[in-house]
Amino acid sequence: MEPKTDAGAALVDALRGLLRKPIGPSVGWLHTLGSLSLALFLLQVATGVLLAMVYIPSPDHAHTTVRALMASSAGRMVRGLHFWGATFMVVAVTLHMLRVLVLGAYKRPRHWTWAYGVGLLFITLGFGFTGYLLPWDQKAFWATTVGTYMAGTVPAVGPLLMALIRGAADVGAATLSRFYALHTLVFPLLLAGLIAVHLYLVQVHGIAEDEPSDPRLARPFVPDHLAKDAAVTLVAFAALLVLAALMPPHLEAVADPLDETYLPKPEWYFYFYYELLKLFMGPWLIAGTVVLPVLATLVLLALPLLDRAPVTNPHYRPVALAIIVAIVATVAYLTSVTATSTPRPRTFKVAEGRVTPQVLRGIQVYDRLGCASCHSIQGAGMKSAPDLWRVGARRSSEWIAQLLQDPQKALPGTVMFRYRLSEDELQALVAYLASLDLERHRPVEVLPTWREPKEGTR
Q1: Is the peptide bond before 109 cis (omega within 30 degrees of 0)?
Q2: Which of 4, 264, 271, 403 could form a disulfide with 410 if both were Cys (CB 3.0 to 4.6 A apart)?
Q3: How far apart, in whole angstroms, are the C-alpha atoms of residue 359 and residue 265?
Q4: d(Cα 90, Cα 355) in Å, to the nearest integer?
């Protein structure tokens, strides 16, 4: 028989060798997460192409085109698959990384496989962040405004970096164009390249086993493990179809840059970071927006150098396992806090004996501006900014007025927004805040009777 010299035949032989490559008996269901992540990425590409055929990336047409998509059953299904596919992909990639961490599969000789995997995780999150703005509704606009504002806290180059990301001083048409380009061109190419290198390294070093095994017990990748990959992918895609059909993504009102009363929240997989940032306010904000992310990235990339012990079995790595469990528990807790938080309280507190018509008017302004999305009053509201329960005893009315008119001048380094207030609104809000001295006066609760019945608590 003549040797095969045909390039096509050689390629077939190489592919056959990859598919028949032996894998250890301990490679099981948890090892399907990588294949699931790849399948979800391909789904995102397919649905993304379909959406791009209709979507127009401009503030005048973005919301309209998405609304038109949602008006048809097919468009609603495609957008639903893309929306839920992004969520599934974040979960799959994160669980894949966790499995690698627990099993110590980041250690040599797989340290470069791990490094590229870290890159895949960050680009996946980048997809989520850039795609968030594209519907151009209230939630997208204000969450992106807050998210890009963090770039401005970087020392020295912060304002330049924020302008580079936004394309202008504020979130607008240039921002939408840049995010669309990143989401549909830059990130897909980067992710495809990293996936190719990642898969090549997996083939070179093999799939990391849970524990060493007898080579004689190895099984071929096809059909043994491929069947598991296919089963998990089919179940995930079935769940996606159900969610896309029964729970299509919501589209809020078109973005209004002048509506400073909107209370934004990021996508759920950023909840933990959103909550964590509340611990770093004022001059410490840079620790949360710059130091922690950079430090976390460096630790992840340097993990193979920091943990050089050859042992990979989690049973013999109790310290590493305890650290991983603690981090996962912390992230889960912070996520749950944001998920269950109510930035719009059901009642408002005021000092007894200081309730005047102007103070009541000030409470309405406080509620309309969404001040409780950052501040609390004796625990009622969010806690990402100082509690205002005794601000009236510590600050003068003049200082409070200056803060509301020009936050940076009154409190350099603050992240507080500058609100557009009429003179009547300003004086009313100052009167309310100046009346807050709940240390010396008993608090009285005021019901928000000015709200529409449908508003309630967000």
Answers
A1: yes
A2: 403
A3: 29
A4: 49
